Amino acid sequence: MVGVLELVEETPQAKSIVLEPRDWPGHRAGQHVDVRLTAPDGYQAQRSYSIASAPEDDHLVLTVQRLADGEVSPYLLDVLGPGDELELRGPIGGYFVWEESLGGPLLLIAGGSGIAPFRSVLRHGVAAHSSIPVRLVYSARSLAEVIYREELMRLADHDGVDVRFTLTREWPEDWTGHRGRIDRELLQDVSWPPSEQPRIYICGPSAFVEAAANTLVGSGHDPSRIRTERFGPTGT
Amino acid sequence: MEALDGNAIAGDLQELFGHDMTAARGSCRNCGDSHMIAELRVYLRAPGAVVRCPSCGNVVMVLVTIRGETRIDMRGIGGMEPAH
Amino acid sequence: MTPVSRGFFGRRRPVADPSRVPPGQYVTADFPVLSAGPTPHTPLDEWSFTIQGEVAEPVSWPWDEFRALPSETVTVDIHCVTKWTKLDTTWTGVSIDTLLEGVDTSAEYLTAWSDGGYTTNLALEDVTDGKAWVAHEFGGELLEPEHGGPARLLVPHLYFWKSAKWVRGLTFTADDEPGFWETYGYHNHGDPWLEQRYQGD
Question: Per residue in A52-75, is it b (16+ CB within 10 Å) or e — as a string?
Fold first, then answer.
């Protein structure tokens, strides 16, 4: 069990839950936790959430995006509050971890709430004074749905960190970023060529991950350098 | 219905096997292809988790929770290798 | 017991008539989609329903002929082993009694099988005398693929995993042969009122 310290609104549909890491063994960037809710009559529901905080951060952070007919996200967003307890299992996972020893250059591709584990990766890279270049491509439906926008822009100020957004449904008139879904052209523009053997991580809804991975492999990237994590239904 | 991947059952596997299994490799008994557990296709919304080979679609593992205990059937796996 | 999450109740709702809710179940207004694999999409001109196995003569209907059979509309409650119950669901389909007219068999069991490889086992007595249908409509509309369309088995008096989605036929067997979920530990019979969820219940 961990204690809820505060809820931070990231977008109209997403909040970050800041948690007190009681008896927390520490984690690696890219890992996740399983959150389990128990009703008074014993009914339980469980969901996985990527850890959005870096291993070096003081508090554990999970970011939750509202799923319209969801069972767990409405509770976490609308009912859970400071002082409540949350049952967590974790940290979990080793496949989707990035740390400096794994090397780079590092390409991160996020769809919707798939950005959460990459916040951990980027913060970890900065905290560890990593010199490995990292590029993030983040696909969201609109600017209002970009999670951690200001923080990502600040991280982009660091040498060796490059952040690109692509908006798929609506964009401001003066938008100079990419428009539309991630495609071969955008990836070729942003990514290092296959010859540089970037480490590539893709996170988001299943269809998004599938499309991005196929495009990269189709462009000549080695599948063994690509790691993927699929979420349940959210929008991109 | 879109599938998730082996990351979605990572917690259950970690409890069953005592350590992280996501980067371990399993070979599909049906087609012989080998994949990391995290890259298998997982259908979670079921009376259990059905895990399928991404190459041929065959069922490689099924996790069910019966009377509070989670068990795994791996008859669809030909062999496993630890993570490197 | 695990600590309670303050204010969490899930999607359940209270029920006017608890006698309609089997033990351990919760009523939902949704229609959750559960699946053991990708949704099959068999074109109707390739679809058929076949009764085979321990029968004197197998019989098969292509889609047009199946749809020409007499069908009926029923309103039933359905109960999923994952604990949700949905009241008053309306289905239109062909009764298994109709499909079995003229089928000569002494076998007492059958396996329903579906596109995508799913199977489930049933006793003959659980699908006859107005207890089961092959349904092609839900709520007055064509059954959607994610809910089992073009046609699924409907056996509402048993847990809903027995109501095989994307059903393509029944294979009669001399013995009760566990199907997909039954092989992995679920009950061979599956009566929600006796809470027969798992083998040994």
Answer: bbbbebeebbbbbbbbeebbbbeb
Nearest CA of chain C to the CA of B68: how many Å? 11
Task: Give the residue numbers in C contacting B (CB under 8 Å), as ranges.
Answer: 32-39, 80-82, 117, 146, 161, 181, 183-186, 198
Express each pLDDT in C165-174 by its tens digit: 999 999 999 9
Give residue-wise pLDDT tens across range B23-51.
999 999 999 999 999 999 999 988 999 99
Minimal CA separation from C62 to chain B, in Å:
26
- For residue C143, what is the DSSP state? P
Q: Which residue of B has its CA nearest to C186?
A: B66
Q: What is the mean pLDDT of residues A81-105?
A: 96
Contact present, C101 and C59 (Cβ < 8 Å): no
> Domain A2-92, CATH 2.40.30.90 — does that match?
no
User: For the domain bounded by A100-231, which CATH number is listed?
Assistant: 3.40.50.80
Between chains, do B5 and A227 touch, taking CB under 8 Å as contact?
Answer: no
- Go through the domains of chain C in sequence order and give each one's CATH number: 24-30+45-194 (3.90.420.10)
Q: Identify the pLDDT of residue A236.
A: 31
Q: Could you tell me the pTM of the whole model?
A: 0.93
- Going from N- to C-terminal start, the domains of chain A cover 2-92, 100-231
